[in-house]
User: Which sequence fits this backbone?
């Protein structure tokens, strides 16, 4: 392994052939020493090498070394994994870190379904979700109930936002409804499996009985809203599903609103999370946090901080 640089969590995940969530979990549990550069976690090659040797049984179990005061402080705080892709979660992470010396948030930029699964597996502490159940039109709770079986949890409204189609400027193909995806001359670009936008598309196709096999570009996947909008702007596709803010960030794209989606936070209810839940509720109800989100535009904050469901 190279000795002259530190690794990102993504590089470590590639080396170990595991997911980034697994790397976050190793750091959270103190099995893999790490430090922060800004918001990014870094791992030294020597520490990664020691972890691999310990895993092979060649070294004694890791014990935190008494090094600098910064290292001691880092090891005393609780590392939290906040999973989801919206920029509002980065702002929440900043507020959490400033509000208490006990928390050091880490960000995992994964889709809604994968985020919930990571919570079930113990890898994430706060997850965001915007998953619609097609028949009822209800957001999030039906999926959370199915995945977090036998867990106690709280669901808190972070925000609402409009989702719909990205189309080329001026909408030359007059794409306005899900039924328009039946047209053979329309090519779409899709989100990855498990993303909220992908679930919205799939549930809508099911609702209107539109066969996936007949949609040109259904298997063409990208991993975020801006990439969908960019694919449309560059002519790679005629339409894609995303949120309003994505269209605002990319030139030559118009937005066709279809639904007002609910974007919620999920936190497990246990003794360890008692203070965390209280802190998150306090942050979401603060004027400063709401003002920061409002400045971004494209969000409905009328229910921000409301507990929408708990077990």
Assistant:
């Amino acid at each position: 392994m190279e000795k002259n640089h530190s690794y990102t969590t993504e590089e470590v995940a590639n080396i170990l052939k595991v997911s980034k969530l697994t790397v976050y979990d190793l750091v959270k549990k103190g099995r893999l020493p790490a430090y922060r550069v800004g918001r990014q976690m870094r791992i030294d090659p020597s520490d990664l090498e020691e972890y691999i040797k310990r895993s092979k049984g060649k070294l004694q179990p890791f014990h935190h070394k008494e090094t600098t005061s910064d290292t001691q402080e880092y090891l005393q705080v609780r590392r939290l994994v906040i999973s989801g892709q919206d920029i509002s979660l980065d702002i929440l992470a900043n507020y959490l870190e400033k509000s208490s010396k006990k928390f050091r948030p880490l960000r995992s930029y994964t889709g809604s379904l994968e985020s919930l699964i990571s919570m079930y597996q113990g890898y994430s502490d706060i997850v965001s979700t915007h998953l619609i159940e097609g028949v009822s039109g209800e957001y999030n709770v039906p999926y959370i109930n199915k995945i977090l079986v036998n867990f106690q949890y709280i669901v808190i409204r972070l925000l609402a936002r409009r989702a719909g189609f990205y189309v080329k400027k001026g909408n030359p193909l007059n794409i306005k409804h899900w039924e328009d995806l039946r047209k053979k001359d329309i090519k779409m670009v899709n989100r990855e499996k498990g993303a909220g936008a992908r679930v919205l598309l799939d549930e809508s196709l099911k609702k209107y009985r539109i066969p996936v096999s007949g949609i040109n570009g259904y298997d063409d996947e990208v991993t975020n809203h801006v990439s969908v909008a960019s694919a449309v702007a560059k002519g790679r596709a005629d339409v894609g599903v995303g949120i309003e803010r994505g269209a605002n960030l990319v030139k030559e794209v118009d937005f066709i609103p279809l639904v007002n989606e609910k974007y919620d936070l999920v936190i497990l209810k246990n003794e360890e999370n008692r203070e965390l839940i209280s802190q998150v509720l306090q942050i979401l109800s603060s004027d400063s946090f709401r003002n920061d989100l409002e400045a971004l535009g494209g969000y409905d904050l009328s229910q921000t901080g409301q507990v929408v469901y708990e077990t």
Remarks:
- The domain at 161-261 is CATH 3.40.190.10 (D-Maltodextrin-Binding Protein; domain 2).
- The longest strand covers residues 153-168.
- The chain is about 35% helix and 25% strand.
- Residues 64-72 have pLDDT under 50 and may be disordered.
